[in-house]
Amino acid sequence: MSATTPSDRATFEVLTPGLSTTVQDRGRFGYYNVGLPQGGSLDNYSSQAANMLVGNSPDEAVLECTYMGANLRFDSAATIAVTGGDIDVTVSGEPAPTWQTVEVPAGGTVEFGMLRSGARFYIAVHGGVDVPVVLGSRSTYPLGQMGGFNGRKLEAGDVLPIGAGSGEAPNRTVVDEAARPSFAKQQDVRILMGLYDFRLTETGKRNLVEGEWELTPVADRAGLRYKGPGVEWVEREQPFGAGSDPSNIVDAGYAVGSIQIPGGTQPIVLHRDAVSGGGYAMVATVISADMDLVARATPGTKTRFVEVTMEEALAARREYKDAVAALWE
């Protein structure tokens, strides 16, 4: 048992860690101006659904698993839920459902297969994963080695404490099929153009919003790289302080969801663990309502970036917030 875990606390042990499993919550806000990204669960909707199913608040920490699950053993009886991509789950060797409340007996194990769809899934336990709060969040920021469990992804043998919990029953014990997200291999991702779209030629802009882009295996919590028809840049003499890459600018801040094109042709969508600024032009930004959608994509997913207006983006944000709120009703 970890030296930091009191002996009277309920815990679970990581038997195998999977490919990349971290502790995440809704994120670390208020420090972007000093270079700390917001972090948090990449698929916020799935993460919150898991918390709802076990009777947690929306702020409790969960496990975010990428492609492969962390197999776990619980020392005490626990209430859990698994949401996100389609995956086989067993509890002490017996099949268990996803998107539903599941009871684990004392000493029980929870094991996972490989994801059949989506890139990530989430494990919530009643009481939450009770790691220390760092700058207002329990989320893991591996690059900064802070938050989560010792500031890193989980390893075999780690023992994590479970919070006391409210003891209250969840609002519901299953999320209806109609309220579960899809994990399609073809996506339309809505974007707002700017701030530096003027740097693209008309052909470059057309390729970005009319071409088909494929997600490459270079995709993690910081960003996702796509390949496709490429873009073109308006020729100019680079200003003092900018690099020689055609997409270089004098440094500027990056919004979460910014699309930058290092190397000049293939775009990267910055996600929750990305740096907060740098020297690449942000030609567009994925709207906040579609950031979960981007996080669900697997390599090979065909993507079209669809330009929308600010009014459409704000309407989509309201619809997304309503969908999340409906989980808790």
TrEMBL record:
Q: What is the lineage of its organism?
A: Bacteria, Bacillati, Actinomycetota, Actinomycetes, Micrococcales
What GO MF annotations does this protein's record show?
Answer: ATP binding; hydrolase activity; transferase activity
Sorted alphabetically, the keyword list is:
ATP-binding, Hydrolase, Nucleotide-binding, Transferase
Q: Which domain of life is it from?
A: Bacteria
Instruction: Look up keyword Nucleotide-binding and say if it applies.
Output: yes
**Which residue ranges does the record assign to the Carboxyltransferase domain?**
33-323
Q: One Pfam family this chain carries?
A: CT_A_B
- The protein's name in its UniProt record: Biotin-dependent carboxyltransferase
